[in-house]
Design a protein that fits this description.
- By secondary structure, the protein is of the alpha/beta class.
- The chain has 2 domains: 117 residues, Aspartate Aminotransferase, domain 1 (Alpha-Beta Complex), CATH 3.90.1150.10; 234 residues, Type I PLP-dependent aspartate aminotransferase-like (Major domain) (Aspartate Aminotransferase, domain 2, 3-Layer(aba) Sandwich).
- Helices cover 39% and strands 15% of the residues.
- It is built from 14 helices and 13 strands.
- The chain has a 7-stranded mixed sheet with strand order 2-8-7-6-5-3-4, sandwiched between helices. Strands 9-10-13-12 form a 4-stranded antiparallel sheet.
- Helix 2 crosses helix 11, helix 3 crosses helix 11 and helix 5 packs across helix 10.
- The protein is globular.
Length: 375
């Protein structure tokens, strides 16, 4: 008997497989197709010949833990203790899975804001807890009254994703104040903040939970070097949490992966001495602006993109098809793969919106846009 009877093949896998079969341009899955920074690959090349191939300590390579603490301090002016408040993980997905498995008990509720990334629900179900899916407004802003109504005496955690995948929205100051007020009324509820796109924001920076003193004693914040440094295949993430929560998370982590890829941890530790994370946003803003300019004469309506490397568009002026069928036809007839937004909702809510990834080289974006403008 299946523990996850309603879980099927991920929409990302489905669309990428179709893209390969039809030789389509894959703007569905969120991975870059341009080269990694040569400074980073040179570090890896040097390290391959050194004695760096055995287990690191369970929490992470100690110099990397120290560099993460420095990064959090410089980015958000938060002081954290490397040895007790940071954990290096095999990607952000493992960080989230481990956190949920460690902190949830059977029959507890977890609030998820839809549309939501697909890695939240499965570990909740495997913990025998219950996901409570609450839809954002149609403009993807949170309705805090609706969210508050979803809380009960069984609520153990709320998950936020900021900057938000798939919508590209970021939470504003009022949102954070509403969140703080809500959690103040529910002092035993934990917060899981998925901030893997924290360094990919545009006109305004996202407001990290690292900066909210009211939340720090109950918040687990998840980050991703894979997203920030264009090395998604390395699967290197990290989370920051207060020591009393981190102790529980580490108990699960040590039996799930024990420790994370040594050479990648050491390479990132050395790379952090060379790279300026503040340059990442401007790099992706140029990508975003270029992709949007290429699509301005298309029949697609461009939605706001405040962060992440995803552009949501409406195809309502083109077709009345549901978004899954439209995306499949986009591959088979026009040779471009996208992700239907309805698949991020528990109830399959279809607003005729699809998501493109613009973390691609200009040639790929130009050819994709050419095909999309012909629709």
């Amino acid at each position: 008997m299946s523990k996850l009877p309603n879980v099927t093949t991920s929409i990302f896998t489905v669309m990428s497989k179709m893209a390969a079969e039809h030789n389509a341009i894959n703007l569905s899955q969120g991975f870059p197709n341009f080269p990694v920074d040569e400074r980073l690959t040179e570090i890896v090349s040097r390290l391959a010949l050194e004695d760096v191939h055995q287990y690191t300590p369970m929490s992470g390579y100690p110099p990397l833990l120290a560099k993460i603490a420095t990064l959090v301090k410089s980015s958000y002016n938060r002081t954290i203790i490397p040895e007790t408040e940071i954990l290096v993980t095999a990607g952000a997905t493992q960080a989230i899975f481990t956190t949920l498995l460690a902190l949830l008990k059977p029959n507890e509720d977890v609030i998820i804001l839809d549309p939501s990334y697909d890695c939240y629900e499965a570990p909740i179900l495997l913990s025998q807890a219950k996901p409570i899916r609450v839809s954002l407004n149609d403009d993807y802003t949170p309705n805090w009254n609706t969210i508050a109504d979803a809380f009960s005496e069984k609520t153990k955690m709320i998950i936020i994703n900021n900057p938000h995948n798939p919508t590209g929205k970021i939470l504003n100051e009022s949102d954070l104040e509403n969140l703080e007020a809500l959690l103040e009324k529910h002092p035993d509820v934990l917060l899981l903040s998925d901030e893997v796109y924290e360094y990919i924001t545009f006109e305004q920076k996202h407001i990290s939970t690292h900066t909210r003193t009211k939340l720090l004693d109950r918040c687990i914040t998840v980050s991703s070097f894979g997203k920030s440094f264009h090395v998604t295949g390395w699967k290197i993430g990290y989370l920051v949490a207060p020591e009393y929560l981190m102790k529980e998370i580490k108990k699960v982590h040590q039996f799930l992966v024990f420790s994370v890829n040594s050479i990648c941890q050491i390479a990132i530790s050395k790379y952090l001495d060379l790279v300026d994370v503040n340059e990442i946003s401007s790099f992706y803003q140029k990508k975003r602006d270029y992709f949007r300019s290429l699509l301005k004469n298309s029949r697609f309506q461009l939605m706001p993109c405040e962060g992440t490397y995803f552009q949501v568009v409406s195809y309502a002026n083109i077709s009345n098809e549901n978004d899954v069928d439209f995306c499949k036809r986009l591959i088979t007839e026009f040779g471009v793969a996208a992700i239907p937004i309805s698949t991020f909702y528990a109830d399959g809510k279809d607003l005729k919106l699809i998501r493109f990834c613009f973390a691609k080289d200009n040639q790929t974006l130009e050819e994709a846009a050419k095909r999309l403008c012909e629709i």
